[in-house]
Amino acid sequence: xxxxxxxxxxxxxxxxxxxxxxxxxxxxxxxxxxxxxxxxxxxxxxxxxxxxxxxxxxxxxxxxxxxxxxxxxxxxxxxxxxxxxxxxxxxxxxxxxxxxxxxxxxxxxxxxxxxxxxxxxxxxxxxxxxxxxxxxxxxxxxxxxxxxxxxxxxxxxxxxxxxxxxxxxxxxxxxxxxxxxxxxxxxxxxxxxxxxxxxxxxxxxxxxxxxxxxxxxxxxxxxxxxxxxxxxxxxxxxxxxxxxxxxxxxxxxxxxxxxxxxxxxxxxxxxxxxxxxxxxxxxxxxxxxxxxxxxxxxxxxxxxxxxxxxxxxxxxxxxxxxxxxxxxxxxxxxxxxxxxxxxxxxxxxxxxxxxxxxxxxxxxxxxxxxxxxxxxxxxxxxxxxxxxxxxxxxxxxxxxxxxxxxxxxxxxxxxxxxxxxxxxxxxxxxxxxxxxxxxxxxxxxxxxxxxxxxxxxxxxxxx
Amino acid sequence: xxxxxxxxxxxxxxxxxxxxxxxxxxxxxxxxxxxxxxxxxxxxxxxxxxxxxxxxxxxxxxxxxxxxxxxxxxxxxxxxxxxxxxxxxxxxxxxxxxxxxxxxxxxxxxxxxxxxxxxxxxxxxxxxxxxxxxxxxxxxxxxxxxxxxxxxxxxxxxxxxxxxxxxxxxxxxxxxxxxxxxxxxxxxxxxxxxxxxxxxxxxxxxxxxxxxxxxxxxxxxxxxxxxxxxxxxxxxxxxxxxxxxxxxxxxxxxxxxxxxxxxxxxxxxxxxxxxxxxxxxxxxxxxxxxxxxxxxxxxxxxxxxxxxxxxxxxxxxxxxxxxxxxxxxxxxxxxxxxxxxxxxxxxxxxxxxxxxxxxxxxxxxxxxxxxxxxxxxxxxxxxxxxxxxxxxxxxxxxxxxxxxxxxxxxxxxxxxxxxxxxxxxxxxxxxxxxxxxxxxxxxxxxxxxxxxxxxxxxxxxxxxxxxxxxxxxxxxxxxx
Lengths: 463, 480
Fold this sequence. Notes:
The complex is a heterodimer of chains A (463) and B (480).
Chain A: H1 10-19, E1 34-35, H2 47-53, H3 64-77, E2 81-85, H4 88-99, E3 105-108, H5 113-121, E4 125-128, H6 149-159, E5 167-170, H7 183-195, E6 206-209, H8 213-223, H9 232-241, E7 245-249, E8 260-264, H10 267-280, H11 291-304, H12 307-326, E9 339-343, H13 344-347, H14 357-369, E10 371-372, E11 374-376, H15 378-381, E12 396-400, H16 408-423, E13 431-435, E14 446-449, H17 452-456
Parallel strand pairs in A: 1-10, 3-4, 5-6, 6-7
Antiparallel strand pairs in A: 2-8, 7-8, 9-12, 11-12, 13-14
Helix pairs in contact in A: 1-14, 2-11, 3-11, 4-5, 4-10, 8-9, 12-16, 14-16
Chain B: H1 17-20, H2 39-48, E1 63-64, H3 76-82, H4 93-105, E2 110-114, H5 117-128, E3 134-137, H6 142-150, E4 154-157, H7 178-186, E5 202-205, H8 218-230, E6 235-238, H9 242-252, H10 261-270, E7 274-278, E8 289-293, H11 296-309, H12 320-333, H13 336-355, E9 368-372, H14 373-376, H15 386-398, E10 400-401, E11 403-405, H16 407-410, E12 426-430, H17 438-453, E13 461-465, H18 471-474, E14 476-479
Parallel strand pairs in B: 1-10, 3-4, 5-6, 6-7
Antiparallel strand pairs in B: 2-8, 7-8, 9-12, 11-12, 13-14
Helix pairs in contact in B: 2-15, 3-12, 4-12, 5-6, 5-11, 7-8, 9-10, 9-13, 13-17, 15-17
């Protein structure tokens, strides 16, 4: 089954991006030619998943689709208990509310926008424990998402195990450019946490943000000694065995348009999940999802660990990345699992970070070819408790590839447009922010070019 | 039992909705097989489930009347629109179709989609309600009350007193008591803040679910709106069953008989500043909800929380296809023939039960028939949970799953730890929309009759395991 998309014209795009306040989040989808805003919820489901949609059991309690999902999580992830939620942030909200107490510290291998917001609302303080090299866009490292064990141990010694409700390990690390974590690193984090017991006698808890866990498993298979002959299924099970649970956005690796879950090996955490899920999401046996969506997610969980599928998936992302590297375009290296990240500070080295170079580059790309990417830089990072902007080291435009949706020909169009823009980059002006919402500002903020005439530039091939 | 009453409110017998609707205004296009289990099997299954119907697997149930929420059969048009879902994260055209449908049917210019109704409540109350506030409502539904209380505010029920009388034959038993509303608003402190008793909004639930699906009259909405306007407090509808409420206005309230449902719906919403909506009821979908608003300023504030809890404002935690199906459902639910069928279908079960001498809450509401467990099992002490016991027996007798709305649901008083015994002890038989036929309802009526015939043998239940919160979902019991 296909979905038609429309080619757009430059005058049309100019009017649309202006109407959207130069924020690609505020563009209407039918004004976009190739939509690389996100890989979240944008997958093409398989015929098998659509068949499952017809088997939705919409009973409020005891739906058979819930049992199928429970079994899929047990079999593929290996967790004992599972509670569905309407999507990933629903699971993060519940886990944060259940485990974090005011004054706690939550170490994690780089922040993610909604995750950190939920941790802070529950009274926790996020502490970045990713290895330093993750913040250097151009530096090559096979596992750039690894946890810095020294940073983690220093934090544990400083605040004590009781102040750490869990260590949050993202696989892969989205904000670092979709960078993986090695199995050796996961094992070492587990060993470190096992050495520090809380006052209840339990080791420090490890929870995965497992959103793109199979993409991470693929990088382990390709890059880590001893794993090249192991299947993704086996690698994923080993990865998950080093944690006590996870939050999952089914909208990524589970290949669905809506859905998520929280999983745990701890009975009392599960009991609390079932109590809180009723307030915010739905009954524990549907968690804010239609029965058919649980069925599609259960089937997606089996499909995601197919080795051939994942080789295609990552291969397509690498294909786009390699074209840009060959043309000398500055991108985050190495190319990650779900997206190619343009290094906007290097790309627009004439635009200071206070003028949001990534925001400007994303708008310019849309204007050039109707390709929609997303800012992941100063705008996304927001402000600290002191009201000052974070000015993160990474200032990027994310070109996120939806799963099983676009062909390599679409990737060629994207590469051509980015390379063309790079050649006339000096014509692109920075931005000033003219509307700033109080939370998660990147979603709805509005901008204006600092040099208006300059921004529209001479126009590229598509003008 | 008293013989069936007719006429006084709904005109001559042939205009009684239980009989006047004729056959369904739809035919069946796709089926889902269900299985009839044997009595011996059900005895075994319910024992295994700890005598808690929530713990039964759905395939163990023959006729599932646990809820009307999310259990509707969608139409062929809705399924077609599932295929048209635009899953773009931002600016999805499916969102604009939903926005147009809400503007067209309800008259609100602004919409924030949410994954279901309770999520709409969470977003709206996080935006508007502060600790120490009071939120008046005709009667809060349980999740609504939970969200108000989660914000540290008091959920105050101001329904007219007859709502608590199971047999008072009043056409609009869901009306808010206008004198109480006036008194509550007159006593409020001015200015919002964490210390004063301020009233951030007034809610009216249509139809009034906790009161038995009882409707609210147009006159009551109009006057409540006038009171709220005088006191400068915004008025919102909990609109989950707005179309069923509109139909009751049409058939019961003077001056509305000749008006199209769409006009009645628009008038209902014209009196309020916004609504929360569970699309799983009158949106005719399996998943979905929204907040609808007029105020741009409130919309801007609410979207901040929507992003955090639900999703980006143009998808709100729903797949694009689900927004499509809900947009279509909103247009279908205001169809006159559909509503005549829907309300008539529920009234039919009520009528069959009355004929069989089964004590029910009257008049029958829009989405469910409520059995009055205290009259059904008069000898059984409240400590033995007569409604829970009755619900269990209905399952054993005929594989019918209802839900207890009584002492088990009410829980314990947080201070004294004593069981709370609400005024009404009921089993709700909620009818999913467009799912079961009259033959299924005949089986339900026969099942109730069968239990009634052996009611002397029912000894009630005691807790085996009682969880500390929301005990009704996971408690286990033993038979006495």
